[in-house]
Design brief:
Strand 3 (65-69) and strand 4 form a beta hairpin. The protein has a single domain (4-138), classed as 3-Layer(aba) Sandwich (Collagenase (Catalytic Domain)). The chain contains five helices and four strands. The mean pLDDT is 94. Helix 3 crosses helix 4 and helix 4 crosses helix 5 (121-138). The chain has helices spanning 18-31, 46-57, 84-94, 98-113, 121-138; strands at residues 4-8, 35-44, 65-69, 75-83. It is α/β, with parallel strands linked by helices and 143 residues long.
Length: 143
């Protein structure tokens, strides 16, 4: 299995250009002086996401992304859970293509695994700047 893998659970498969996604995400990690050992992206329905949010984070609300660190050390190991319905809703709300919003939440999850936080306004602003930076690099990424 490649170090970056994609799983779809009970929703349409929205992962496009997987080789290009892997290259892009590996470049994000390299920018942070890290490599990816094992990184999973799981696209699922809103109910499953809500259940996991309640069970593991004690949050009783819908979210677009949940990130779990699975290993400590210099290599990135984690799972990024993604809500297909929330991503689709956010894309419509922000007037962007679904694929762009999907990439935003994917890189958001990876940034968490790389140590970025988003609890305060300043952290959220810094996280958004990082997301925008890497989204702008997508156009220059090759498979």
């Amino acid at each position: 299995m490649p170090p970056i893998h994609f799983t779809v659970c009970d929703v349409p498969d929205a992962f496009r250009e997987r080789a290009r996604l892997r290259n892009w995400l590996n470049n994000v990690a390299r920018d942070h002086g890290r490599t990816i050992a094992d990184l999973g992206f799981v696209l699922m329905d809103a109910k499953a996401m809500l259940d996991l949010n309640r069970r593991y984070l004690d949050h009783d609300d819908h979210t677009d992304v949940i990130t779990f660190v699975l290993g400590e050390g210099p290599e990135v190991e984690g799972e990024v859970l993604l809500s297909h319905p929330r991503i689709k809703e956010n894309a419509a709300t922000f007037g962007v293509p679904m694929q762009e919003e999907l990439r935003r939440v994917m890189v958001h999850g990876l940034l968490h695994l790389l140590g970025h936080k988003d609890k305060t306004d300043a952290q959220r602003k810094a996280m958004r700047a990082q997301e925008d930076k890497y989204l702008s690099r997508w156009a220059r990424t090759r498979a």
